[in-house]
Fold this sequence. Notes:
Layout: H1 2-13, H2 21-47, H3 49-56, H4 60-64, H5 66-89, H6 91-111, H7 115-143, H8 148-178, H9 182-202, H10 216-239, H11 244-266, H12 274-278, H13 280-310, H14 315-321, H15 323-343, H16 345-362, H17 372-398, H18 406-419, H19 421-438, H20 444-485
Helix pairs in contact: 1-15, 1-20, 2-7, 2-8, 2-9, 5-6, 5-7, 5-10, 5-18, 6-7, 6-9, 7-18, 8-14, 8-15, 8-17, 10-11, 10-19, 13-16, 13-17, 13-18, 13-19, 13-20, 15-16, 15-17, 16-17, 16-20, 17-18, 19-20
Amino acid sequence: MGIAHHSIVVRMTDSPQMPLGARGWTILLTLCGATFMTGLDYSIITVALPEIGRSLGFDGPDALQWVVTGCLLPTAALMPLFGRLSDITGRRRLFIAGVSTFTGFSLLAGLAPGAALLVAARVGQGIAAAAIGPTALALMTAAFPEGPQRTRALSVNGALLSLGFVIGTIGGGVVTSGLSWRWTMLILFGMGLLVLTGAAAAVPESRQALSARLDVPGAVLASGGLFALVYGISTGGTAGWLSLPTLSALIGAMVLLGGFLAVEARHAEPLVPLRLLRRPTVKWGMLTGLVTFGMCGGATLLLSIYMQQVVGWTALETGFGFTAEGVAALAAGTGAARLIRARGTGAAVALGLTVQGLGTLTMALLPVEGNLALLLTSSAAMGFGHVLTVVAVVSTITSGLDASDQGVAGSLAQMPTFIGSIGVAGLTAVVAARSAALAHATTQRSATLGGLHTAFLVAGGVALIGAFVGGRALRRTEVARTPEVLPA
């Protein structure tokens, strides 16, 4: 079975790599620039939070967190809605509207005189990012046909998206230290203008002749359910997982999302057709995406805690500590297309999550006094495996679909990015519990390190389980799809 499988995959995917051409590269860089911009936004503002709090007089950490949460919540909640809207109204039109809105609110955030206006601008950026994500991915799948060109485009996109986080972490410290936190937002304003220029010049319209009407009940239930879910996860760590607000949000999310599935099953023109969710490629792609985003996102946050609270690095030094992860992410994006063409997405997912898991497990060896070589090596392995998995997952979810479903598929492919905060919250809880258990017998630094080691072991173990289960499942879907792809 294994030998037959590999011969099938080669026959399905091996073909000469067609050059993208000047126009193709302009389209690709424009669309990747938009997703890079939204990824950069999250990390660059996180580093600047302490300076923002002092500058605008936020009332403590709970209020300051809304600079991040205010952007994250609408992005997660509205992405399915904008994904379907792009299929109906036109993806280029919605993409340009989203980038224009994001650019305008970035300028407003950079000039905000007070805390309330800054949070309001961040909400506006989050709404715009919900429109940018699925439309950029749908425009990319429409511009580059399924096969080598699309896989290459998705590889570049995956590498730049992850690189945006690392550059934002480093750049946020540099810009905030050398200039002002306001430049973190003004840089996004300038990037938005460049993306708009490229979109107007090169990106073609991608729209199907659909007469579908928007599924309003589904949109309300999906948006409300996702909002409540991400809100409960985001605030549970500070408010307490058994607190009334957190429990209410999580229970409300289950009720609303359950109602959403019930409505979609009976609606003639659903927001997210259940036939997509039932597809093995979509189902397993989203599950493995949830594993890689949750465990990598959580481990990256824990590395930041290790560098600052255990080793004692500054925020700027911590940012540079993620350099190896960013370089490895870029390398993975460069090589992902070749691996997927040769072995298939199932093998790429298995390899990616295995490398991510082993790199994360190695972090459990990090000592209290620090070890730069071990830190760079383990974080590079995690970043490489993560991006390889992300490219394979997005390729899996968006492949074999009708063009009319690509907007929705784009939103589903990016949903694990936000729902993956479940992993961040879970790993943080592991650190807190283990650190508390060790606190009475050792120093605070050692107790914190013990909690981090336990969480790194959990994150690595979950990634390895995902590699085995998800990789095998996706290999089976590739074999099952073979008769549809191969000529008779």
